[in-house]
Amino acid sequence: MAEKYDFNEAINVFFIESREMLEDMENALLDLEKDISDSESVSAIFRAVHTIKGSAGMFGFNDVGDFAHILENLLDKIRSSEIETTPDMVNLLLECNDHIIKLLDYFDANREEEINPELNSVSQSLLNKLNSYLPAGAGERKKEQAKNASDLDSGDMQVINECWHISLRFRKSIFKNGMDPQSFISYLSQMGKIVKIKAVTDAIPPAKEMNAEECYLGFEISFMAYTTKEKIEEVFEFIQDDCIIRILPPKSDLNEYVALIDNLPEETMYIGEILTEVGSLTKKELSEALKLQEGLKKDSKKRIGEIVVDEHMVHKPIIEAAVNKQSNIKKTEDKIKKTMRVDTSKLDKLINLVGELVISASNMERLIHESGNSGMANAFLQMSRLIDSIRESSMNVRMVEIGESFKRFERVVRDISREKGKQVDLVFHGGETELDKTIIEKVTDPLMHLVRNAADHGIELPEIRAAKGKPEKGIVKLNAYNEAGNIVIEINDDGAGLDRQKIINKAVERGLIKEEDLESVSNETIDELIFSSGFSTADTVTGISGRGVGMDVVRKNIESLRGSIIINSEEGKGTTIRIILPLTLAIIDGFLVKAGGLFCVLPLNSVVECSEFDNDEDVRLSETGNYIYLRDEIIPYVKMKDFFESNNETDSMGKIVVVRYADRKMAFLVDEAFGEFQTVIKPLGRIFNKIEWISGATIMAGGEIGLILDVSKLLGYLKIVETRNIS
Amino acid sequence: MSKTIMIVDDTEAIRMSVGFTLQEEGYNVVEAKNGQEALEKLKNNNVDLILCDVNMPVMNGIEFLRSIKTDNDFADFRFTPIIMLTTEAGEKMKAEGKELGAKAWIVKPFKPDQLIKSVKMLLV
Predict the structure, then answer these.
(1) Is A81 left (phi over 0), alpha (psi -120 to 50) or beta?
(2) Are B101 and B122 in contact (CB under 8 A)?
(3) ipTM beyond 0.90?
(4) Alpha-carbon distance B60 to nearest alpha carbon in chain A (angstroms)
């Protein structure tokens, strides 16, 4: 076992695990809301709370643990059908779910601190609500116990001793059953202090009758501990059948001692002596007890003490719930995936190393080609295949199903529909689509915003929908799929669609568009306006959307991931927003070209074709020089070196590389095309931030820098060139 | 030779904190996240004591105990002390655990010294 445990790491894991657990719980609650009798959801919720309760206590987050404890009580009652689930209750449980998240956030940020009063008062008010569902007994147990204790305090015949008194008589068979009585006594000492212990040797037979395999001992123990009778009983639970145990709480009623003396197998005087020796009874108390015992005997059959003791010995009934729990767990076994948690920094390191490996492999490849050693080239071919698989598998490790983050949106949609009186269904497709974890993390917030917008602004109120002849319940669809090496996420609603007039008004008001241009502006351009900074069309800023994050921020976030966002809206029918994202951020399959003396990388998936440019029938330049005819297709054409404003002249005719993005194509003239190139993306310095169409850099095998070009931006650039040419 | 303790619990945070506590005391620690994995690991590890949660997916604590008791592959571990870790004081479960050879249990949440004391008591 080389691994060294780190307590702080364990705490971190606790927070991670608990948050995951709460996410599951939220999902289960939402399921429960849909089907109030779904017992599987209840079990899932119970399990989450149960685990959080257990582990929160382990790490000393008692405020979390105690809160979860009461919640667990209620859930247990729901599970065993003692309490009926109501929609209000589910609502309360959701609030509790949120509150535990807040508690965790708080303690995560302030590890050693006390709970703050504000959170505490929320805890209290939620606990009060929870308790109102619980039958009077369950929640009030502590109080009751306290009351019992004070009852005892006021009794006349009370023993002054502050200690517990425990009487133990082991059965002869205990050794044979594999139990060592002594270990249970030392176990007891964990809970408190054994003030005095006295062995009761009365039962030891004469030496020749003694069987070495039998136990003849008993103990009288005076025990100091702040605990409960149940806790002490628990210590001896394993040998419960192998011994007689009597436990008397501190300051017990003298009657109980009388009953104890009566019940133990030894002579009254003998045991009485021992009780005074261990200090449980004073001499005076003992004689009182003996008198009492006499009196009771005379009095008749009714021995109050014994009845009391018997009542105290009654064990709690078997909890049926325990059985139910076992069977419920089996049901969900299938769902649990075999996974392992790995620190992301370890993964990042791995990916980085793989990146370096890819670079040095391409260096090696170049050298081998130069050397012309065919044997080595063959061997290298094999190796490069392996490197490819390593790259792919290590990338795969970072891939996470997007469905997990989709589930979070359910709550958002639910809350919006409640608040605004709308009816919205959220539907997922392609939740199994995999995407780099970092991308998922970064795309979740923008997605959340879009989903929120779709439900809040897109979907109309039920009356309005009915009037328009639509079903009252609106649908927000989330769809994820792979397309040409990219991941596409679509957010679609069947709501009102964008109100273009409103957008135009706003845009004019904000000076984003000139009034005289209005005639010529296409619908698409209008729709795109909502991505302009500081643009918000909601007449009144609602509590849900309009949280200061506009669509412009959404677009920026997506673009920072090398992604793009497209909006498509039809008035009265709804809006679809497509987000196109790369699969991963670290390495891309590129297409290497050289133009104007510079290496450039185009994302391979955007390259449609590459051909010699010799102005023959197939590929020929238009008269204006702005287009080429490629097998009768007209494609905009740009010399790549113009982008770099390079005057580097080359003699060769060059090659044509045709790229595509969305529905648009574009042809570049480059000096040389090298073909497929695995590109490890390195970020560019801030100086290059302004140049939109350069998305990153890479280090070439020979140590030169290669620029990674952003095709969507290049196309945008082309648009500007076009318009400039027209004007 | 320091003794080896196996911790079987599906909650990673608990495995880690228990592992930490035991390691501080100089024990070797073997982790398993359910009964199934624990059985697998018993094949390759010499374990002196087992700490075992009750509610776990795939194979719960009770089933795990039963396998040790009844499956001859694990005859070597029939006398290995087992401490159950549980949050509820379910009588039935305790009785069942005891029946299957558990030597003690600890109720979660527990304090590190509580754990160490129980472990020491059973490892004497």
Answers:
(1) left
(2) no
(3) no
(4) 8
